[in-house]
From TrEMBL:
Pathway: Cell wall biogenesis; peptidoglycan biosynthesis. Residues 4-141 form the Glycosyltransferase family 28 N-terminal domain. Residues 187-338 form the Glycosyl transferase family 28 C-terminal domain. It is an enzyme of class 2 (transferase). This is UDP-N-acetylglucosamine--N-acetylmuramyl-(pentapeptide) pyrophosphoryl-undecaprenol N-acetylglucosamine transferase. It is found in: Cell membrane. Belongs to the glycosyltransferase 28 family. MurG subfamily. Cell wall formation. Catalyzes the transfer of a GlcNAc subunit on undecaprenyl-pyrophosphoryl-MurNAc-pentapeptide (lipid intermediate I) to form undecaprenyl-pyrophosphoryl-MurNAc-(pentapeptide)GlcNAc (lipid intermediate II). SUPFAM superfamilies: UDP-Glycosyltransferase/glycogen phosphorylase. It catalyses: di-trans,octa-cis-undecaprenyl diphospho-N-acetyl-alpha-D-muramoyl-L-alanyl-D-glutamyl-meso-2,6-diaminopimeloyl-D-alanyl-D-alanine + UDP-N-acetyl-alpha-D-glucosamine = di-trans,octa-cis-undecaprenyl diphospho-[N-acetyl-alpha-D-glucosaminyl-(1->4)]-N-acetyl-alpha-D-muramoyl-L-alanyl-D-glutamyl-meso-2,6-diaminopimeloyl-D-alanyl-D-alanine + UDP + H(+).
Length: 356
């Protein structure tokens, strides 16, 4: 039986693509193990999947001054030794990394053990963790054509992001019923990410009465970000977070408003949902969401409003435009090259494993 180690963590976007690959990897006969951090979200997400999980020490590699910069390199070194021991024990044929800082010691350990490695870069430009890992990788999968120029040409492959199979099997009627809605009005779904997005929440709620004249609204607003004063508002439901029913809610959506994290927008693209993207500002990030959104806007998949440019009127107009021209956006998304991602990535994994 072939063996593979999956790694990646820190945010859900570094884990859910790994989870999306698991059914196909099992179908192809792989025995799967996961190496992640002690406290990261990946441990919780992998717990229910009946896959051996091995935690290691990990530290964040920062580009800015922080007292933790003195201690975290030692955590990475400790993680490297732990990863080397684990890989010696597991003896995988290949490692697949979705990124995040926990992946760095695993990929470096794989290189030292001469184990082939395939990595995936979600964003337009590689983050620091993947920049460290790229020299150790056999192949680098990407979401955006623009990313290719930042990578060694012999390693880069445009694959798109693995999408969880269950997202394609959502039931619109179940989604509407879950919210107590009918199909008399189109449905607007707002997703601010796993932590929610205050700027997005505020913008939506400020024009809620106007939006409710034309739409019924499902608002996933993040933990601790419910507005209790809006409970009972006809045509509006809000949840901190939805897991099991998310595929049904996405099936029910006619238009979406979202942040521009790579995993989120690739799911929107795969489901061909007309959308408005409000990327995380450069002040609060390294600017990757801004670049991701720009690529989708250029391809005709999305309307983009920068966080600092959001006004009530601009957001309302964008929602109307996305809905009224929805056929054009869907047509553009159907032309995307970012399809069959799981098949492409598993093919690259097989190729690397067979070279060992």
């Amino acid at each position: 039986m072939k063996k593979i180690v999956l790694t990646g963590g820190g945010t859900a976007g570094h884990v859910t693509p790994n989870i999306a690959l698991i059914p196909e990897l099992k179908k192809q006969g792989y025995s799967i193990s996961y190496i992640g951090s002690y406290e990261g979200i990946e441990r919780k997400l992998i717990a229910d999947l009946d896959i051996p999980y091995y935690p290691i020490s990990s530290g964040k590699l920062r580009r800015y001054i922080d007292i933790k910069n003195l201690s975290d390199p030692f955590k990475v070194i400790k993680g490297l030794h732990q990863a080397r021991k684990l890989l010696k024990k597991i003896k995988p044929d290949v490692v697949f990394s979705k990124g995040g800082f926990v992946s760095v010691p695993v990929v470096l350990a794989a290189k030292s053990r001469k184990i082939p490695c395939v990595i995936h870069e979600s964003d337009m430009t590689p983050g620091l963790a993947n920049k460290i890992c790229i020299p150790c990788a056999n192949r680098v999968c990407t979401n955006f054509p623009e990313t290719i120029k930042h990578l060694p040409p012999q390693k880069a492959v445009l694959t798109g992001s693995p999408i969880r199979e269950e997202l394609f099997h959502g039931d619109k009627e179940k989604g509407l019923a879950f919210c107590g809605f009918t199909d008399e009005k189109p449905t607007l779904l707002i997703i601010g990410g796993s932590l929610g997005a205050v700027a997005v929440n505020t913008a939506v709620r400020s024009i809620l009465p106007k939006l409710l004249e034309k739409f019924q609204i499902i608002h996933l607003c993040g933990k601790g970000k419910l507005d209790e004063s809006l409970n009972g508002t006809k045509g509006y439901v809000q949840y901190e977070y939805i897991k099991e029913e998310l595929c049904d809610l996405m099936a029910a959506a006619d238009v979406m408003i979202s942040r521009a994290g790579a995993n989120a927008i690739c799911e929107i693209l795969a489901l061909r949902k007309p959308n408005i993207l409000i990327p995380l500002s450069a002040q609060a990030s390294r600017g990757d969401q801004i670049l991701n959104a720009a690529s989708f806007e250029k391809a005709g998949y999305s309307i983009v409003i920068q966080e600092e440019d959001v006004t009530d009127q601009k957001l309302y107009d964008a929602v109307l435009q996305a809905y009224e021209h929805r056929d054009e956006y869907v047509k553009a998304m159907k032309r995307s090259q970012l399809n069959n991602s799981i098949e492409k990535i598993v093919g690259l994994i097989n190729e690397a494993a067979n070279k060992k």
